[in-house]
Amino acid sequence: MTQHFATIEGVPPPFDTALSETVVRIVDLKRRFGQTPAVDGVSLTVRKGEVLGIIGRSGAGKSTLIRCLNGLERPDSGQIFVEGREISGLSERELQPLRRRIGMIFQHFNLLSAKSVEENVALPLKIEGLPKAERLKRAAELLDLVGLADKAKAYPASLSGGQKQRVGIARALAARPAVLLSDEATSALDPETTRSILALLKDINQKLGLTILLITHEMEVIRSIADRVAVIDAGRIVEEGAVWSTFADPQSEVARSLLAGIRPQLPQAIAARLAGTGREAILRVDIAGEAARRPLLSELATSIPGRFRLVHGGIDTIQGEPVGTLFLAVETASGGVAETIEFLNARKARVEVLGYVTDNA
Ligand SMILES: Nc1ncnc2c1ncn2[C@@H]1O[C@H](COP(=O)(O)OP(=O)(O)OP(=O)(O)O)[C@@H](O)[C@H]1O
């Protein structure tokens, strides 16, 4: 028993997600409410040590999916495997021990206000019957891990939102779950606190090799923490891939619209002057990976007749991959617009003509 709750230092090092095994497997999961197919045939896998983000608009089916995973909702059909064991279709009693393999953090923290911070963290271990001294030792280790060692005796009411979520994370990790489910865990927090909680989750993911499945409606959360993203719409996964490639080239309308707020946009001053014809074409050029590593603009300048100017844009780094958007104004008189597009497409850049401007103020 004691061995089962080995110290944090005893946890294996981070996993190589490419080589490691599947922790969660969801197969053709369906759950409908009356006429509403809330989850409509979802299949997904989460590998050990990876962070999978599931993103979708309000009502897309995220909560229903995560509730099926933690056993709060019964799927109509389909299967859920956690560490190879099927949890869908189990009775409440059979589910109990498997639930401990699933940690959960919530938007509103769900702490017990009458219990101190250390008691909240130790609660899952009390339910497991671990002796008090060991529970408190483990709680102290976890509070240290989440940066709240000095708040062990405090009560939730005296904590900030970010501190409450740190306690929630410590509690979720108490029973050494196989996977941590996060249900909009940062949605109630301000941007700075959100960043610190996401950094903490990423840190724990990397230090402990913790597998995380999170649902969110914010692309910023996906960008800062996820390895892979699945986009859900009307109960179905409409797109799935590495975060950097989804950011660089979203395939679905939903992903494009969710990304609109954080992908670079043409400055309003230029967008307002766009017309159907003009002296310059305004091109949106999306580049990623190889295309973003090469000296694209200098190659363009030496290869294409006529002149162009960079009006806006830049390169970001997502998961170590360069991902960027450049807005170019290309003179139409030289006939170089079509050639520019061809040149860029040949180098795997995605090009869209947004319109034309005549004055370059
Ligand atoms: N208990 C229920 N009874 C009836 N309909 C439900 C129930 N739970 C969810 N639904 C419906 O199922 C669909 C998916 O809801 P769900 O809460 O899973 O979406 P969501 O993506 O989590 O949305 P949000 O981001 O707003 O929480 C919605 O149309 C919702 O109205």
From TrEMBL:
SMART domains: AAA (SM00382), NIL (SM00930). The lineage of its organism: Bacteria, Pseudomonadati, Pseudomonadota, Alphaproteobacteria, Hyphomicrobiales. Keywords: Amino-acid transport, ATP-binding, Cell membrane, Membrane, Nucleotide-binding, Translocase, Transport. Part of the ABC transporter FtsEX involved in cellular division. Important for assembly or stability of the septal ring. Belongs to the ABC transporter superfamily. SUPFAM superfamilies: ACT-like, P-loop containing nucleoside triphosphate hydrolases. Residues 24-259 form the ABC transporter domain. It holds the Pfam family NIL. It comes from Aminobacter anthyllidis. GO terms for molecular function: ATP binding; ATP hydrolysis activity. This is Cell division ATP-binding protein FtsE.
